[in-house]
Amino acid sequence: MNNLLKLSALELKNAISRGDTTATEALEAYLHEISVQDGALRAYNEVLVDEARDQARRIDDMRKIGESPGLLAGIPIAIKNNLCTTWGRTTCSSKMLANFRAPYTATAVARIRQAGAVVLGKTNMDEFAMGSSTENSAHGASVNPWDLSRVPGGSSGGSASAVAGSLCSAALGSDTGGSIRQPAALCGIVGLKPTYGRVSRYGLVAYGSSLDQIGPMTRDVADCAAVMNVIAGHDPADATSLDRPVPDYLANLDEPIKGLRIGLPREFLSDALDPEIHRAIENAVEVYRSLGAEVKEVSLPHSRIDSGAGGELSSFAVACYYIVATAEASSNLARYDGVHYGHRTERDAADIIDLYSRSRAEGFGDEVKRRIMLGTYVLSSGYYDAYYLKALKVRRLIKNDFDEAFETCDILLCPTTPSPAFKMNEKTADPLEMYLADIYTISVNLAGVPAISIPVGLSSRNLPIGMQLIGGVFREDVVLRAARMFEKASGICRLTPPPLGRDAE
Length: 505
Description:
Layout: H1 2-5, H2 9-18, H3 23-41, E1 44-47, H4 49-64, E2 76-80, H5 107-114, E3 118-123, H6 157-164, E4 170-175, H7 181-187, E5 190-193, E6 213-218, H8 221-231, E7 261-265, H9 275-290, E8 294-298, E9 305-307, E10 313-315, H10 316-332, H11 352-363, H12 366-379, H13 384-405, E11 411-415, H14 431-435, H15 442-447, E12 451-458, E13 464-471, H16 476-490
Parallel strand pairs: 2-3, 2-4, 7-8, 7-11
Antiparallel strand pairs: 1-3, 4-6, 5-6, 5-12, 9-10, 11-13, 12-13
């Protein structure tokens, strides 16, 4: 059974198609691993055993009568707990939605099920996707399979931990400012944020509506491309979904990249970057040069990262993001008032305002409250022009920088994170320091372009290091092909964490 856990998603699907194993056998292998390991990793909020077994049996029955179950037939996949399903609870890892059962299923989830995937359960996350470490979950923090004393990243930390720890074959996450790519980097897996509008957001509980995107988290690039083949495409139920042709992301995945133009944003390779990550990025650049790629320096001036006298980092992109995202969050989360949606206080309320206040104070965690207050402030009368309107103008400048860079480059190459996985509770006392964990990923969401994080090695503490490849609008195919070529040439693929229980110094 354990051998099934070592297979990639596509390898497992092919094994099921050949009759070497069954969807039920694959599922039971993962369910056993979850029962043994998830007590330590805390990757799941809810494992949907009965539903998953029913799905697996349907796949096996279809195969027996000669029907094709789909591209993802029998692959056990986990989904982030902000994706609605009509089975199980959709809690966003928040007390506010502790018992919420959605009346419909998210389009991305429906599509993977139609393609034969077996949904294992709902993964842990930072509450309402607000965080970079999964420490903001009302269910308790997930941990990193590489070192149980360290965070898996966030907000899709449960999904990343589950993929890296072999508690699922692949997972879906959501990315508002790096929430797929950052945990993918910290856990040594592959994570793709698609172009805004490429994957339907219908059924994704909204955080920042102009920033959110659903994407795959997998062990290798081919699996990532396979999941994208299923979830990408227009959805009339989502007004932001764009009706553009979707290529077969697997078709040209192994096509050589000789002549590919790679840009290195000088702003992302400053002295503020961890030296080991800097070396790993330099080594990756040499791999690309050996494959015939053309590498040159480019500039993204409005994503500039500055280092203060005390070594602290700052960026226009971070400031812009935490105005735009919090403003949208304050609007999106207004519906959770104890009447329309969400937790309702059991204490006697003096009036309707008191009812709202008590319900929201009890239902939301500290980080969600902080972002709601920030967003409400920047949208308030007298401050709207000074903060929110100005942030929208800066966002436009950031997008212009990317557009200009892609006039001379096919992809951009940079770090995913400023450091490897950090210790639990290391940054919780300083929200700004936590926000800077996404300093290399935030501008991608502001620009709406696709980006992938892939592993490029291990640090001296045996912790994964991630590299980010950024593409032009709707160029996920180029990003995936470039990632795949590095994976093949470097041999850095499907990194395996040490046995659970190791705590590094």
